[in-house]
Amino acid sequence: MKKNWMLLLGLCALAAPFSATAAPEAEQVDLNHTATGGYGYLIARDDRAALWWAEGAYKVLKDAPLPQRDQPVVQLSAARNEYESFVLVVTPQREMEQCRIALSDFVSAAGDTIAGSGTEIRRVEYVRVNPPTDYYGRKGDFPDPLPLYEGPVTLKAVENTPFWITVHVPSDAAAGEYTARATVSGSGGWQQSVPVKLRVRNFTLPDTPTIRSGWGMNMDNVARYENLTTDEQKRQKFEKYMEMFARYKISPYDPFVYAPIREQVSGVAWQGGFFDSQGKVAGTYSYKVTDNSATERVEATTRELVPVTPGRAYRMEWQAKSQADQQTYVVGIECYNAERERIVFQNRFEQYSATPEWKAFELPLGTLDEEVRYLKVVLCSANRTLSGEDRGTMWFDELAIRPEGAQENILPAGSFEVNLDEIDIRLDFSDFERAARKYFAPPYNFNSFRLALKGLGSGTYYSRQNGRFEGFEQGTPEYEKLMQRYLQQIQSNLERIGVLGKEYIYWFDEPSEKDYDFVYQTNKMIKEYAPKLTTFLTEHVAGQDISEVTDISCTIWHQLNHDKIKRMNDRGLEYWSYLCVWPKAPWVSEFIDHDAVNMRMWLWGSYVHHLSGILMWETTYWNSPEASPEGYLQNPWKDAMSWVTGYGWPYGKQTIWGNGDGRFFYPENRDPNGDRTTAYPGYPVPSIRLEILRAGIEDYEYLRLLERLAAEAGRKQAALKQEAEALLQIPKSIYTDEKTYNKDPQALLDYRERVADLIERFLQQ
Predict the structure, then answer these.
(1) First-last CA distance in the chain
(2) Is the alpha carbon torsion for 266, 268, 274, 276 positive or negative?
(3) Which of 696, 698, 705 is nearest to 734 (CA)?
(4) Is 411:308 a contact under the CB 8 Å cutoff?
(5) For 692-723, what is each residue's pLDDT tens digit?
(6) SS3 state at 239
(7) Phi and psi at residue 274, in whole multiples of 5°?
(8) What element of type H or E holds 319?
């Protein structure tokens, strides 16, 4: 695939036929919660400004009304190793310059301290929504980006300016009541001092999240937006992203972008095609080259450079046939000097026409330049163009390079013969192991990674292709033998390193009904040769179940199969869910112009339905090449909509996926079209939705901890056990099903406190 996220577009495009039944169009998102009397607490109000606060569970609109309730003290509660946030809002009567905000250390009566280094202040910024995601959303400015507060700001008159303030309670903090003070000031001597009380609970959330996750991140896209051109710049930026993933308690698809499993294969002289034992001129194999892509140039080449004598004339001869009659194809060589550097203008390429019958061809190479020391042979099954729009299938055999006037063949590999026993697959896990020991331990604590395997096929609902391993196609005995050697090395090394079971082999995306046998056969092969490796499948087709060979089923949220969830859980398998462009309202969703509670409710629903993982196809999908003008990069700071891109989508067609779909971080570069030169090596800017997601992940920890305490309860805790079992049956007043749930965050917040109280009572007995 051209880009990391291209495999996942089936999540977005195919889901449309399965959309939810639309709710009445009169229902629309109400982030101000007018039906329940609003939210938040007024701290102070004078002729200069109003100051108020709310829990970190709300999206504060610019024109949200002042709270009706007075509460001059910010009240927080958190476990150890938990992030807890609140929103402090300034609403000035007239423009206010030099607005500053600061938060002191948290100090308990016993003198214990949670230092200010564990707190973070971010400014809430807004993006324009136009058009809305669906009937439920609406046009307007919606809060989402959270850049760090780095100094005084100017506030607009009669407009809310929210600051998102987060405290991280260390794992070794003493339980008890802590107090800090937030100070807000502005021009003209205006100042307010706000007490902040934090109750640190007497239990600790685990370093490694209980719920597993897989979240996409496209480093190529990041480099493009942030003007990163050197490998060092890209690695530094990648590390910043890994830190942010860890901070939000989610695992990236691939923490091994710069530390892959390296391979060295010997005993195979060609790459890019298939060894075909069915159609050949002589020997055991011919070489089949297939180009099915209208957007890429597919070609086969010699793996090693072929030494030649400079100043000598050569000719190349071969036999070829095609699948289609009068197939245009190209054969040629590239030339290299003694340092094995390509000599740019010494190519020899020629175009030919083939038929389905074997035929002899030749290419006079002429006298080679004195600088030429090596050749690379290139075989193309279609016309060799820059854009690769032509397609075709060719077979080659009995290829020879001979000095003019001689029969000596300097290319013995041109017979396309190969001995499986001579193929040596050596895997080097050195870089991978160092990265694994880093990212799967504190402070990162990732719990999952997407394992890309050599040789597997690929596909989506749109198309699929067979696997191939060093020129042997899936379904051949040679392929099976090579995959067996390879998979067993992968399994044994992951086990040695200590990350076996954290991998998930996500190689096919959202199969349609016709694809299930293909997926089954590949997963069956993996389980046969490496039974401990974890197979994974995103799916949504009702009635399909290949959990016999699939360890993790990951289903789009509005297509959860509850019977299958139970069957898989009973067998010790995993069931995950994902959100993407679907579902839209009234279901739990990811969109900027939908309810603030959604990302948190996703985790509560995951607990109710006994799900063990959450997946998001992308976090940095900032631009659609099909929707944007050529050479233009959409600015996510100004435009919230994610537009369709993908298979066969016509350039210029602009179709919505949803506001914020696949974008949970914002680039540092706020002007990606105007600034194409400044490198931005710092941290990405997170979103409110990530903050609320993390709170949901921590809620999930509360529920699972209480569940474990109840399961381990002794006789003396029988009453608490009974109370816990009742509390863990989440009431329908909070969550009924995937599309019916309480939109008011306060319901979750109150219930979570009840869970926390009961956990503490367990631990006190």
Answers:
(1) 56
(2) negative
(3) 696
(4) no
(5) 999 999 999 999 999 999 999 999 999 999 99
(6) helix
(7) -125, 140
(8) strand 313-322
283: left (phi over 0), alpha (psi -120 to 50) or beta: left
- Which residue in this structure is represented by tokens 């067609």? 653
Residue 596, SS3 per DSSP:
coil
Q: How far is CA 468 from CA 428, 457, 491, in A?
A: 21, 7, 19
Spatial separation of the C-alpha atoms in residues 370 and 450, rounded to whole Å: 49
- Residue 515 tokens read as 């694809």
What crossing angle do the helices spanning 231-247 and 219-226 adopt, rounded to 10°? Answer: 110
The closest of 681, 677, 657 to 668, measured between CA atoms, is: 681
- What are the φ/ψ torsions at residue 598 (nearest 5 degrees)? -60, -50
268-314 per-position pLDDT tens digit: 999 999 999 988 999 999 999 999 887 788 999 999 999 999 989 99
Distance separating alpha carbons of residues 412 and 415, to the nearest angstrom: 6
Dist. CA 608–CA 575, nearest whole Å: 13
Helix (H) or strand (E) holding 473: strand 472-473
- Among residues 519, 535, 542, 532, the alpha carbon closest in space to that of 576 is found at 535
pTM of the model: 0.92
CA pair distance 176, 79, nearest whole angstrom: 10
Distances, alpha carbon 61 to alpha carbons 64, 65, 140, 142, in Å: 5, 9, 10, 6
Q: Which residues of 612-649 are buried (b: 16+ CB within 10 A; e: fewer)?
A: bbbbbbbbbbbbbbbbbeeeebbbbbebbbbbbbbeeb
Question: According to DSSP H, which parts of 257-415 are helical?
Answer: none
User: Which pair of tokens denotes residue 257?
Assistant: 């972008």
**Tokens, residue 288:** 């089949």
* Long-range Cβ contact pairs of 384-388 (< 8 A, separation 24 or more): 384/297, 384/299, 384/330, 384/332, 384/349, 384/351, 385/297, 386/297, 387/295, 387/297, 388/291, 388/293, 388/294, 388/295, 388/296, 388/297, 388/298
* Residue 23 burial (C-beta neighbours within 10 Å; 0-12, 13-18, 19+): middle
Q: Which residues, in sequence order, are CB contacts of 632 under 8 Å at separation 6+?
A: 673
Q: What angle do CA 433, 438, 443 make, to 5 degrees?
A: 160
- What is the block-wise mean pLDDT of the chain (765 residues), using blocks of 10 residues? 40 41 67 94 96 98 96 97 98 96 95 87 97 96 98 96 98 96 95 97 98 97 98 98 98 98 93 92 94 86 95 96 96 97 95 97 96 97 91 96 93 93 93 98 98 88 81 92 96 98 95 93 97 96 93 96 96 97 95 98 98 98 93 96 83 92 98 98 98 98 98 93 97 97 97 98 91
* DSSP label at residue 715: G
Range 474-481, long-range pairs (CB < 8 A, 24+ positions): 474/522, 476/277, 478/275, 478/420, 479/455, 480/525, 481/420
Q: How far apart are CA 31 and CA 58, in angstroms?
A: 8
